[in-house]
What we know:
Structural class: mainly beta
Amino acid sequence: MWVGELNLAFARSGAKTVIARRRHKGPLLVQRAFYEPDGSCQAYVLHPPGGVVGGDQLSMSFELGPGARALVTTPAATKIYRSPDRESTQEQLCRVAAGGVFEWLPQETIVFDGARAQVRTRVELGQGSHFVGWEVTCLGHNHTGFSRGRLVQRWTIDREGRPLWRERALFEGGGAALKARWGLAGRPVVATLVGTGARAEHVEAIRAALPETTPDWLSVTRLGEVLICRYLGYSAEAAKRFLCAGWTILRQGVSGRVAHHPRVWAT
């Protein structure tokens, strides 16, 4: 069992955003930062054990100062292994001060049959700040299915104490919702992108970029200022391509910035 904590603070330094504070405990850390042409910071969270087992408790917090811009991702998929009784927990807390932009874009999470886990992402936004984040979940390893276990995913996004978006998803191994047409319809990969600052034209631009034919189920909608892209299908790679298209359009539309994919995504 591992207890891991990571705290990163990003601050604006001239034209660049730098890692102003870095603290870690246990198997969570980051190495050097990378920079986009406009000075935005990219950081990769490393989890050396390579997987999450029952009883693991992983907690990350990201704090952005005024005007800071940062993207955090992971170099590989997160694997949540089978646990007969103990539950693992993963939590991300994102605080973004006025004018800041934070993007939480991890690689996919692979939930092994029999895994028990809770994952929570909390976002607290200041005035004029923005957030984009996604979650790509594969229920079962190598299409083995998810017949046992339990996964709970929670999202909360607030702006200056005012709720913008709330969601709780419960996946019960072997449950009816995994197979039923009103649920996942037997499709093992489910993904969601959420982003703030969205306008109606962003929704239309993403819809216009959708493929004409696909075996996957895709949707794009807007609730207030929050854009939500959904994927339900069979491929984590297809899910990430769809979410990347949404992220690219939203980033350009909200902050006028070109999307630069982290180098680690190409390895």
